[in-house]
């Protein structure tokens, strides 16, 4: 195999898209798409744009929800991609973003109340996490690194292995963001021996 040296503008090799909901200072809610994500046990690590409303909100009111849209919802995600809840629009975003107070209306999605945190969940998403921010680290370029503990998980019964608390990876289809394109996951090619959902 011969490789070439490249320097892509982005390194989104394939990460899940999520919608983060937070509470604004006036008690209304902000909704934003993101794809910088990883998880370790019950902790999430999220990358949020420093000059976005979501970052401001979690620093002031450290709760959020993370809702994972299935691939058919990618147009709703894209409708949110160029709007911001910040007014005035920050200078770094002024060329591409426009202010929208009601981002839920822009998305065409709906909210449903959370049980343990103030921000609501996105009703149409089949997998939703309620979380409390445990640490937020600013200064990583244009991003705020947010560490949040998941305190409740909501799952559509259709994606849960019957009689268990396991998400069925064959039934669950996250939207994958790869080099600025949206994808469904492909066919299963294998599994870890420690998986509790084989067979």
TrEMBL record:
UniProt domain Flavin reductase like: residue ranges: 14-184
InterPro entries reported in the protein's UniProt record: Flavin_Rdtase-like_dom, Flavoredoxin, Split_barrel_FMN-bd
Protein name, UniProt field: Flavin reductase family protein
Record carries keyword Isomerase: no
GO MF annotations, alphabetized: oxidoreductase activity
Family, per entry: Belongs to the flavoredoxin family.
Gene3D superfamilies: Electron Transport, Fmn-binding Protein, Chain A (2.30.110.10)
Catalytic activity, EC: 1.5.1.-
Keywords assigned by UniProt, alphabetized: Flavoprotein, Oxidoreductase
Organism: Agromyces aurantiacus
Source organism superkingdom: Bacteria
Cofactor: FMN
């Amino acid at each position: 195999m011969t490789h070439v040296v490249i320097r892509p503008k982005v390194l989104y090799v394939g990460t899940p898209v999520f919608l983060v909901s937070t509470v604004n200072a006036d008690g209304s809610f902000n909704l934003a798409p993101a794809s910088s994500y990883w998880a370790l046990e019950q902790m999430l690590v999220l990358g949020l744009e420093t000059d976005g409303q979501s970052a401001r909100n979690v620093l002031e009111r450290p709760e959020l929800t993370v809702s994972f849209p299935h691939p058919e919802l990618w147009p709703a995600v894209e409708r949110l991609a160029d709007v911001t809840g910040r007014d005035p629009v920050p200078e770094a975003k002024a060329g591409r973003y426009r202010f929208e107070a009601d981002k839920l209306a822009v998305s065409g999605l709906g909210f449903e109340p959370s049980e343990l945190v103030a921000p609501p969940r996105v009703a149409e998403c089949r997998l939703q996490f309620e979380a409390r921010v445990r640490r937020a680290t600013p200064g990583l370029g244009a991003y705020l690194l947010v560490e949040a503990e998941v305190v409740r998980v909501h799952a559509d019964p259709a994606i849960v292995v019957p009689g268990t608390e396991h998400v069925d990876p064959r039934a669950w289809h996250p939207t994958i963001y790869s080099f600025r394109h949206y994808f469904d996951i492909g066919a299963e090619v294998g599994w870890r021996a420690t998986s509790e959902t084989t067979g």
